[in-house]
Each structure stands twice: as structure tokens, then as C-alpha cells.
Amino acid sequence: VEEELIVTTFDGVVIGAGHNGLTLAAYLARAGLKIAVLERNSEIGGGTSTEEPTLSGYRFNLHSNFFMGFRHAPMMRDLELHRFGFSYIEPPVQQAAAFRDGSCVVIHQDLDATCTSLARFSKQDAKTFHDLYHLYAVKMRPLLVSLLYNAPLPIDELLDRLSGPEAKEFLSHAQHDLFSVV
């Protein structure tokens, strides 16, 4: 049996059907482009995948571990995700690390609960986490949001925004890895 070859042309191709690839494809399609999304796995991935890797009935988002601020992201509104049944649930416990001795560190939505968990191992680490959280989530939030969810700024305006004391503190951490900061 001879199969008919169907040729389809696209304006663009997005490689990967994780949340970033799907978001990009949705914006491009909304702008009128014909977009193909290619994913190597049989299901979409990234922060959009839920699996049962351990026991039946225990479902996890294996890649979805850092979505702080997602509820403020413009794509929620722009793409009208609620119309498709999407709702973003932020559980009170964000992530945890269990150790062989039975102890664990738990990152909560609640800052004080997280600091209490960290303090069981190191009061200094708990204080450092508290201070960094206050710097980034409170003092730096307006700057970060203005840089994340807007068109790139002209260089002179960007330098102006990055010249204040909070911005200098923020930039001083950019050259460090997590362990040297905490």
C-alpha cells in the first residue's frame, strides 16, 4: 500500500513541550504564526508533567520545584489559561529533602516555617535564608518583576535601574553559587 506524503509547512518549530516551550508556542500562535511543537517523549514534560514514579497513587511533578512568583506571570492572564481548566495550586510545603538519619529540611510557603526547619541544622543558615528571602522577595520584587516580564530595556535605562543599593546587592550575588551565598 502506497502512503500519501502530506507536506505541512510551519513558520517556526519549538523543540520541547515543557511549560517554557508550550508557553512560547502559544504566544507565537497567538501572534498568527503556524507553529509545530516537537517533544521526544510520549507526554508533555517539564513543569507540566505529573508521574507516579514510586508507588501507585502517589503522583509527583518531578520537574516542578521552583515556581515562586508564577502566579504573577503575565502568561496566566495573556493566554487565558483558566478558560482551559488551568489553576495553579501552591501547596504549603514547596519541597523537602529527607536524609538517611530520618531528619529532613522542608521549604514551606511560610517563611518562618522554613526558617524553623533550617534552624534545626544551622541557626546561621536560617538567618541567612531569612535575610536573602527578604532581600529578593520583598525589597527586590519590583525590580525583578520589571526586568522579567517586560521587553528588554535600552542599556542606559537598564544601568539606571541597576544602580541603586538593592540592585548592587542583588548583582553581588550573581557571581556566587548557592553554597557560597548560604
From TrEMBL:
Gene3D superfamilies: FAD/NAD(P)-binding domain (3.50.50.60). This is FAD dependent oxidoreductase domain-containing protein. It comes from marine metagenome. The lineage of its organism: unclassified sequences, metagenomes, ecological metagenomes.
